[in-house]
Hints:
By secondary structure, the chain is an alpha/beta fold. The protein is elongated, with a radius of gyration of 30 Å. It has 19 helices and 17 strands. The strands form four sheets. The protein has a five-stranded parallel sheet with strand order 2-1-3-4-5, sandwiched between helices. Strands 7-6-8-9-10 form a five-stranded parallel sheet, with helices on both faces. Helix 2 (about 45-65) packs antiparallel against helix 3 (about 70-90) and helix 9 (about 245-260) packs across helix 17. Helix content is about 50%, strand content about 15%. The structure holds 3'-deoxy-guanosine-5'-triphosphate and magnesium ion. It catalyses: 2 GTP = 3',3'-c-di-GMP + 2 diphosphate.
Amino acid sequence: MTENEDQRLFESQMELLREGYREKLGQQMDKMTGLLENLEKSLDPLPALETLGHELHKIAGGAGIFGMPELGKKARTLEIQMKGIRERAALGQEVPVSELRTAIGALHVPESLPDPEAPLTSPLPERSSGKAGAGDVEEPGLLIIDPDDKRGRELVLALRYFGYIPKHCAKLSSAAALFPQRPPHAILLSLSASENFFSVTALAEEIREVFPQPPPLMVLSDSLDFSTRLAVARAGGQGFFIRPLDVPKVVDRLEQLIGRREMAPYRVLIVDDEPMVAEHFCLVLQAAGMEVQREEDAARVLDMLSTFRPELILMDVHMEGCSGTELAGIIRMEEEWVGIPILYLSAESKMEEQIRALNSGGDDFLTKPVDDAYLVASVSAHVSRARRLAELMAKDSLTGLLKHIRIKEALEVEMSRSNRDGSTLCVVMLDLDHFKRVNDTWGHATGDRVIKALAHLLTRRLRRSDSIGRYGGEEFMAVLPGCTPEKAEILMEEIRKNLKTIEFHAKEEVFNVTCSIGIACSSLGSSPEEVLQAADQALYRAKEEGRDRICIR
Ligand code: GH3
Ligand code: MG
């Protein structure tokens, strides 16, 4: 679906929802009229007053969301007055029924729906994350501008080993034709010895003309002089490298700048007992590229957490049967969900109530009606930070790969999945050859760069559905679901060859490294331990047989 079609579908769904909501408002008004009649007849006015308050609260929260902010405000004022009436009625005072009837009658529903552009809702927010269900990793396009053809081609080759698709041109004027669909993810501008401050400034200007939203710029140069650095900084450059190029270092910076993999969509659970309000939030978040599920029944939320595994809960505060804050308490009792962000969404505007809600396990409080763009921004900010934290906990700081314990957990999860659906899975163990020598000769810091380079290679080459971990110091493990040993061998052979070709620079010298690889397939054993052991034995054999090779069990 194109973006325009997406937008039209979103708008027509919203339109339907708004119409449905108007109809429902009519029913709510009828219900309130009925309650007023009961009030006059019954001896105990408290239950009817309570239900009236509840209905007013729902309108206070919902009307603004569906483009009727005035109605929402009136309902809110009346809801507050209602509390006083209830308290006085509890003390035996008379209920001012006719005044209530006038006030409720004044809550008229606007004849026609307001223009959907007009309400306080912002235009459809931008997609905040990758398209739902996006498949394999998109290989990032790079533009290399180098007047020296030979040098440009060499850089193209070197970066290909890391899974990039670089395109080289000598002049910027021919760059646009190389990227007809979309601009490159980054530009590497390679300067000749004769180029200086002025040429960088002029080139940066030209880049802005060719690509109106210029991608991150990195500059490669022969000299370190301050004026060139300054020109690069003024041109918005985000990396500066001296020749001879240390390609893994350049890749490291590229990874930081353009991100390693396409992000999976954020997963959000909406808990609200008002189906239309929940549907509205659901559409807004989905339009922003998120995966959303709704749950109206508080008793089912724990089950929903374990099946859907959301990264954030959007929680209504006032729900019948179990309030949002009570439900948050129940969720926080489960160790696994102690850290999940909970955002309360409520028409409650009283500061003390909001503070009470936040004190009972919530992370933020959004007051209904909440602006669509604000909702998306708030949800995105919370999920992205939660993801970053979860990553820091699960991932190794040097390589960004899963830690030992996490990659073993991933193997267990994938093994049980493949046993269920009858597919095969491969486990790969990979170890750098004679790595001790690298450390001893070039120093530990250089050794670290080698480890990182191999990690980059693996992340670039493997699919998003694959799990990759740093199993030990210079030992890596990958779990490839749905992969045959033949496919795994082809893939790992490519990685083995690429690694060998990478030139590492240290102490003004250049060196290469190799690795040994063991592969085992899940059909070999029924348990994760057996497959892991088989892969380990295959790796041992690869070492025994002379290293720099792959063995399959
Ligand atoms: P083999 O080919 O048999 O695997 O030989 P090797 O030298 O690679 O294996 P060995 O187990 O003898 O040495 C591994 C070295 O890896 C020793 C250790 O200091 C180094 N190492 C482990 N973790 C790190 C790390 O995080 N950074 C660096 N720079 N070195 C590490
Ligand atoms: Mg080793």
